[in-house]
Write a structure and sequence with these properties.
Layout lengths: L15 H23 L1 H8 L1 H22 L14 H14 L14 H17 L11 H10 L1 H17 L5 H18 L22 H4 L3 E4 L1 H14 L7 E5 L5 H15 L5 E6 L11 H12 L4 H16 L2 E5 L12 H4 L1 H7 L4 E5 H8 L11 H4 L8 E6 L12 H8 L10 E6 L3
Parallel strand pairs: 1-7, 2-3, 2-5, 3-4, 5-6
Antiparallel strand pairs: 6-7
Helix pairs in contact: 1-3, 1-5, 2-3, 3-5, 7-11, 7-13, 8-11, 12-13
């Protein structure tokens, strides 16, 4: 296997990884502690004194975690038995074996940034599951729901657009259908700006109608492989036998507004017959503040269905029907909340890799997926995407992401350097987006 570059880490003072570990992660932990404080009376009402004691215990564990981070203490193994505890602890041991530190301990500012962030969210989950009877509590639920409620106008505009499109879809010629597909792909891309872990848990809702901004945003798409997606799926549609399936898998990122944009894209894929099944992959535990869990997925569809806006509620009713009919399928897998890069999937989660191989196309949403696809390493800007995937090729895939981390491959020679010279934070603000494809052309 080719030599891969070093991992991004907090060792690089002033880097985005360093500032995330120094400032953003403690800010998120403080918000989590505050959320638990604010729910104290609810815990008392539900569970009496036991609930209050559990809240105190969770806060104490999280305060200890924050202190470990801020004083750059060594990582400690997970202790609470959970489905992934052993895998996590083996991985922590493995990371320690790679270190040249004199004490051989993984630390917050010296370990790979990807591991540091994943470990922090896994430790938050551990603090909650160590604190029954409040071990069911999603510390990020409120902010995810707030993002959905604050984006209502944009959601109504998108649902209205989709329903009007579906009513005339059979009258569209191939070019018109392609234009609509590209439009909904771009909406899904810019929906990825709504990331609560990026904003430190502060509100990041969508207040403007993104449909009206697509033309203005086009110059900010640095890599645009949408043509490959169209060519692949329209070809599947043309050559599909009557009883056979075309499966598109969407590996989800954020709940709230972004999830709505992904579901609208999923609806269009079925309505246009570009796909016969859409499979959604979410997280098994609350993750990176706003990542989608099965609860978020079901809750959001329920909210859309019960909207008093007719096109919005029609979308919700259709989506519920797709799930009942098996045309939409939601999957959980613990691998998505492990710290491993995706090239390790065939070894760590061979069942998931085998599942992904059944897809005709996999869409990976957002930054964390991109970081795991490319190993979150210090790649040169012009390194081919296929190379950075390091052997991870289960099926044709495309990453759809607004840039919020210091990693990007597959650019033209000099393009990244030019952007860096004119706009030093170009790759960490969410201003630019990509559709980056790997698969047969």
């Amino acid at each position: 296997m080719a030599v891969v570059p070093a991992s991004l880490s907090g060792q690089d003072v002033g880097s985005f990884a360093y500032l995330t570990i120094k400032d953003r992660i403690p800010q998120i932990l403080t918000k989590v502690i505050d959320t638990l404080h604010r729910h104290k009376s609810e815990f008392f009402e539900k569970h009496g004194e036991e609930g209050v004691e559990a809240e105190k215990k969770a806060i104490s564990l999280l305060s200890k975690l924050r202190n470990e981070l801020q004083t750059d203490k060594p990582f400690i193994p997970l202790v609470e038995k959970f489905v992934d505890t052993d895998i996590w602890n083996h991985y922590l041991e493995y990371q320690q074996s790679l270190l040249n530190e004199s004490d051989g301990k993984s630390r917050w500012f010296y370990s790979p940034w990807l591991l540091v962030e994943c470990y922090m969210y896994r430790r938050i989950h551990e603090a909650i599951i160590q604190s029954p009877p409040i071990d069911y509590f999603d510390v990020f639920k409120e902010s995810k729901e707030q993002n959905f409620y604050e984006s209502q106008e944009s959601i109504i505009a998108l649902c209205t657009h989709l329903q009007q499109l579906i009513r005339t879809i059979e009258d569209l010629d191939e070019n018109q259908l392609k234009d609509e597909f590209f439009k909904l792909l771009q909406i899904s891309l810019w929906g990825n700006k709504c990331d609560l872990s990026f904003s430190g848990g502060e509100s990041s809702s969508q207040n403007t109608n993104v449909l009206n901004s697509l033309e203005d945003l086009k110059p900010f798409i640095l890599l645009n492989d949408m043509e490959h997606l169209w060519s692949l799926l329209s070809n599947c549609k043309k050559t599909r036998e009557k009883a056979s399936a075309t499966r598109v898998y969407i590996v989800l990122d954020n709940s709230g507004f972004e999830l709505v944009t992904d579901l609208i894209l999923g609806d269009f894929l079925l309505s246009s017959e570009l796909a016969t099944e859409v499979h959604f992959y979410g997280k098994t535990i609350p993750w990176f503040v706003s990542d989608t869990t099965i609860h978020d997925f079901n809750w959001l569809i329920e909210q859309v269905k019960h909207s008093n806006h007719k096109w919005m509620s029609k979308c919700g009713a259709d989506w519920e029907e797709y799930i009942k009919m098996g045309k939409w399928v939601y999957h959980n897998h613990i691998f998505w909340t492990l710290p491993h890069e995706y090239c390790a999937m065939p070894q760590v989660a061979p069942d998931l890799y085998a599942e992904l191989q059944k897809a005709h196309l996999i869409l990976f949403k957002g930054d964390l997926n991109y970081r795991k696809l490319t190993g979150d390493r210090k790649w040169e800007f012009s390194v081919p995407f296929h190379q950075a995937l390091n052997g991870f090729h289960p099926a044709p895939l495309c990453t759809i992401r607004t840039l919020k981390a210091e990693i990007q491959v597959g650019l033209q020679p000099g393009q990244g350097e030019q952007l860096l010279a004119s706009e030093p934070s170009w790759w960490t603000t969410g201003k630019y987006g990509i559709f980056q494809y790997d698969g047969p052309l």
